[in-house]
Design brief:
The complex is a heterotetramer, with two copies of chain A and two copies of chain B. By secondary structure, chain A is mainly beta. Chain A is built from two helices and 13 strands. Helix content of chain A is 9%, strand content 42%. Chain A has a five-stranded mixed beta barrel. In chain A, strands 7-6-8 form a three-stranded antiparallel beta sheet. In chain A, a hairpin with a 5-residue loop joins strand 6 and strand 7. Chain A is extended. Chain B starts with a strand and ends with a strand. Chain B has a ten-stranded mixed beta sheet with strand order 4-3-5-9-1-10-14-13-11-12, sandwiched between helices. In chain B, strands 7-8 form a two-stranded antiparallel sheet. The longest helix of chain B is centred in the first third of the chain and has 16 residues. Chain B is globular, with a radius of gyration of 19 Å. The chains are: A mainly beta, B alpha/beta. At the C-D interface, strand 2, helix 4, helix 5, helix 6 and strand 6 of C face strand 1, strand 2, strand 9, strand 10 and strand 11 of D. Strand 3 of chain A pairs antiparallel with strand 5 of chain D. The complex binds zinc ion (2 copies). One zinc ion binds next to loops of chain D.
């Protein structure tokens, strides 16, 4: 065996043997949204809501109805602006269970007003042309497979 | 702390795809070695701490079956979980239970079987780490995706390059190739890394640690017990620093470093009166190449933003400022979540005892080592400082 | 232990089906009350320990989201799991972290959302507790089924009757009816219990604790910190005893008692120099009626086999030898796994401070209380002795 | 409202509100049986195997291939007798996910030789007539739904 061949031999620990299949277990959760229902309803109307503590002024996004810092649960909802600036992003090629049917999607975080918002950056062919600092506009979109509304970003001043 | 605590025995299974063993059988490989290394039997152990994320194996509550199989029924276990930092959390609990006087000798076990489910399920389980409701549910986050968010921001702000990221894998594979317990025992080139398929852009397959089965264990004892047992090569736990950060990644301060690392490191340095420049050998949390770059900076080995340069200059290699991941790291050795933190301890104890293979033993003068273990995407941070 | 540790604040959410809150929101109810009870804020807490079995809620790794929501980002958490004894494991870890000198003030949080999945899933998750491979996989074990195996054996050996089992529920409902935080706030008759539908013969619906959502929390501090904070009603942790038993139920010594209880109790009594007869008020692990009967015996309140007689004679009621489960117990109050152990502590701290509602305050002379918390079907045992 | 009515009012904490459905997650595990394959094959042949450590004599059932007490992994397999004595049992009425299709089944533990064995006690109509101490014979049975063999007990000297 020559040197070149030896170099390509890649020792990996992979030990297999007989297996049995477990009894499958399926988890479907009913998630309570009583305290944040305004947010979920807002998405249906294309609006993104955050929360402000009336007692101490703390802002929460994602929203939460209790303010741990001052102990108050007296909060007000306010709508976030529809524009933001990209802080970072990635395109998900290796997709998880439940998302296999989607084309590789871009998850981005944008600074929107005083908070940061996660969303899918849509209508982008080549993620290499997107840059941190790019301006985006915000909307919401219905995802039928999961019966949910999500936040979407679109690049404002360029096409990629 | 009210008394000194030392590590007197360590063990680690062979890491990799271990379709040949159950979680119990896998844990036993590490436990057996750790007991033999300490010269003890189950009778000498007063309590076991079992660390396992436990989200991918068929045993839903893995601690008790693991404990029974290894012969520790009646003696614990305390089960802890801190995602990818689970092993360090197990060590921290064992350390406190000895330091408090609750017990004199404890065993920390870390074990994970990750290959019993398929990759899509594994990605879902990882993506649900951190925050399901506001992130995974809406956007299908994955674990590589989270670190990719950090990579993108770090590259944009500091000009860190894909080549610099690749160099981390190249260095770590150089040592993994010499580690008979590593999952990937071969070297790679920068080109190999750059040409591997995208997983979560800008991270490619070789920027990512794999899905690994493995176990590691450490026997912990008080100074008195160490004297009574006539152990002559203890490695002392100088300090454990811990911290955490927000579940929601959108609430983080920035995406160019991990606050959990910085705070945990500060705590550990302060408690031990040791400075970054004193550290001679370190195992840092390189679940992804970008993570090792950020770790250099957040641990204070180099200033923020210069991590790419640090690897390029060889400062994290043997002969540099600090020898990092001579085990091969999570990238080369594998990353079985519950085991990882204790596998770092295994490696560093062996390093401090100067028992490593030729070519991957760090040269030591001060005999000071540091383990850096992150859970989730900066959700947990542990920094442990060891000294022989 | 190297220093005294006390409990300075406790909180508990309303238990029940809590479809109105997420796990984070639920935990906050208990945390807020515990902080207010101690007169502290998040700034005073150095580390949080989060106990959650976490097998039925949508958050796969619940500790970090719970921690963030309650304002403890950066401060822990250490997550522990010990099935139904998770809350006690959280207390034990917090206790050791204070006793060791690692921190001066810690917060133990226990929380469980169990009603987000349907009953069949809940039964599967419970049945997988202990040992999946050799039990659930083959035979579809359930949690009530495991305790039913003990009930059948206890009844066969000692002549314990279904009526005696029912009396446990009757007593505990008498107190649950007076507990505004209990899931079931009404009284029942022996006949109600006997006529309820079979769940796992010989156990019927009213022999079983329900599927409950709930949270509880306790602030733990060192003696010095208690002085510095000017806390004047601390409850001292005199001792924590722990033990465990085999994962496989077929490997147990017998089916008429829990060895994990006996060993944990022995340890706690020995460490605290307290005897069973000194205990005035106790919260014991009545996940099923048979469990409370066995607890009387295994804790040494009465000799083995006489537990049925003990309840019949009213010895476990106010005015008897020891007042047991004045909170309503797991049967009446509900049993949210991660919260249960800390809800016992909540109740006993309130009892020792003599703050309970009329009709369910234990008369106290020695001010000694005992919490007994079992994980799985005797897989974990914790006995905690408190004194004011 | 009269006293009788008030007494039957049963206050239970049950708070409901709006919910959303989580994305379901399904777990199917491949369980390695390399070290215990003799046991799994035995069941197919109607045989129940246990393990004895050749080094220290410790017996393991369920079987395990490593002996933690002496550290040896040098074990031998031996077949258990086909008769035993009931130590305890229950009938599962409330069935878990994966077992909903089965009629309420009896899980029993029998002393068999020097070990205890779990199995399903079959051909019993009324569990109230079964007693701890009853003698049973052991066999194995194929369960198609889960593609597995299990151990079954039958009462030896009586019918219930
Ligand atoms: Zn506020
Ligand atoms: Zn042996």
């Amino acid at each position: 065996m020559g040197m070149a061949e030896r170099k390509t031999e890649r020792k990996t620990i992979k030990r297999e043997g007989p297996v049995i299949d477990s009894i499958p277990i399926i988890y479907k959760h009913r998630i309570p949204i009583s305290k944040t229902v305004k947010y979920w309803d807002g998405l249906k109307e294309g609006k993104i809501y955050a929360v402000r503590c009336k007692s101490c002024g703390a802002v929460y996004y994602p929203p939460q109805a209790d303010c741990p810092y001052c102990g108050s649960s007296d909060i007000e909802w306010f709508e976030l602006p529809k524009e933001g600036v990209l802080e970072t992003f990635t395109r998900i090629y290796a997709r998880p269970q439940g998302y296999e049917d989607f084309e590789p999607y871009i998850i981005a975080i944008a600074k929107v007003g005083d908070v940061r918002v996660m969303g899918w950056l849509v209508n982008v062919k080549d993620e290499r042309c997107v840059k941190v600092g790019d301006e985006v506009t915000l909307s919401t979109a219905y995802i039928e497979k999961h019966n949910k509304y999500i936040i979407t970003f679109q690049l404002k001043n360029k096409q990629c | 702390m009210f008394r000194k605590v030392g590590i007197i025995g360590v063990g680690q299974s062979v890491f990799g795809v271990r379709g040949d063993v159950t979680i119990q059988e896998l844990a036993w490989e590490a436990v057996k070695e750790a007991l033999e290394d300490a010269g003890l039997t189950q009778r000498d152990i007063e309590i076991s701490i079992v660390g396992s994320a436990g989200t991918r194996t068929y045993e839903l509550y893995p601690a008790v079956p693991v404990n029974e199989y290894s012969g520790f029924s009646e003696k614990g276990p305390i089960r802890v979980e801190a995602a990818c930092a689970t092993g360090s959390a197990a060590l921290a609990v064992a350390y406190n239970m000895v330091a408090s006087g609750f017990v004199d000798v404890a065993l920390a076990i870390g074990v994970e079987k990750m290959n019993e489910v398929d990759t899509a399920t594994s990605l879902a389980v990882g993506g649900r780490g951190g925050n399901y409701l506001w992130e995974y549910h809406f956007y299908g986050t994955t674990f590589p995706g989270y670190y990719a968010l950090y990579a993108t921001a770090h590259m944009a702000k500091f000009g860190t390059t894909e080549e610099q990221l690749a160099l981390v894998r190249v260095k770590n594979q150089k040592y993994a190739a010499k580690n008979p317990k590593a999952q990937f025992q071969f070297e790679v080139t920068v080109d190999d890394v750059l040409k591997s398929r995208p997983v979560a852009w800008p991270l490619k397959l070789y920027d990512c640690s794999a899905i690994t089965d493995g176990a590691a264990a450490a026997v912990i004892a008080s100074e008195d017990a160490i004297k009574n047992l006539h152990i002559d090569t203890p490695v002392w736990i100088e300090a454990i620093g811990y911290a955490s950060d927000t579940a929601n990644i959108t609430k983080r301060e920035d995406y160019v470093g991990l606050k959990a690392t910085r705070l945990a490191a500060q705590m550990a340095y302060k408690k031990s009166h040791i400075e970054p420049k004193d550290v001679e050998v370190a195992e840092v949390h390189d679940c992804f190449t970008i993570a090792e770059i950020m770790a250099y900076e957040d641990l204070g080995f180099v200033e923020k933003g210069k991590g790419g340069k640090f690897i390029e200059e060889g400062q994290s290699d043997i002969g540099g400022k600090v020898a990092v991941n001579l085990s091969g790291g999570l990238l080369g050795k594998g990353h079985p979540l519950g085991a990882t933190g204790l596998a770092m301890i295994y490696e560093l104890v062996k390093q401090l005892r100067e028992e490593r293979e030729r070519g991957r033993q760090a040269p030591l003068k001060k005999y000071i080592a540091l383990a850096h273990n992150i859970g989730g995407t900066g959700h947990y941070g542990y920094v442990t400082i060891l000294r022989r």
